[in-house]
Amino acid sequence: MPLNTTQKQEIIKQFKTGDSDTGSPEVQIALLSHRIDRLAEHLKIHAHDVHSRRGLLSMIAKRRRLINFLEKVDKARSGEILKKIGLKN
């Protein structure tokens, strides 16, 4: 379930760190979180969709790796993004 461009631009605008920022860890984590939320809603309806569940688990793992990287680089930025998204530390 890809995001349409307007949704993606809104998320990027909300979480960017600079003027031309589209790929910082904060933006990537926010985009993944939005996709994870949408896919989780899909799986509540379609519980037997094993292929989408596998994709969900891979997205969750990727988001976790990005958060771990951000914690190594800058603990404050990591805590800030987790608060904005609503994840616990």
Summarize the structure.
The chain is mostly helical and 89 residues long. It has helices at 5-15, 25-45, 50-73, 75-85.
* CATH class placement: Mainly Alpha
Percent in strands: under 5%
Describe the largest sheet. none
Averaged pLDDT, please?
Answer: 94
**Sequence of secondary-structure elements:** HHHH
Q: How many beta strands in the DSSP annotation?
A: 0
CATH arch. level architecture: Orthogonal Bundle
Low-pLDDT segments: none
What's the Cα radius of gyration? 14 Å
Subunit arrangement of the protein: single chain
Separate helix tally: 4
Task: Describe it.
This protein is an all-alpha fold and 89 residues long. It has a single domain (5-85), classed as Helix Hairpins, CATH 1.10.287. The protein has 4 helices and no strands. It has helices at residues 5-15, 25-45, 50-73, 75-85. The model has no long low-confidence stretch (mean pLDDT 94).
Spell out the blueprint of helices and strands:
Layout lengths: L4 H11 L9 H21 L4 H24 L1 H11 L4
Helix pairs in contact: 1-2, 2-3, 2-4, 3-4
Keywords:
single chain; 89 residues; mainly alpha; Helix Hairpins; 75% helix; globular
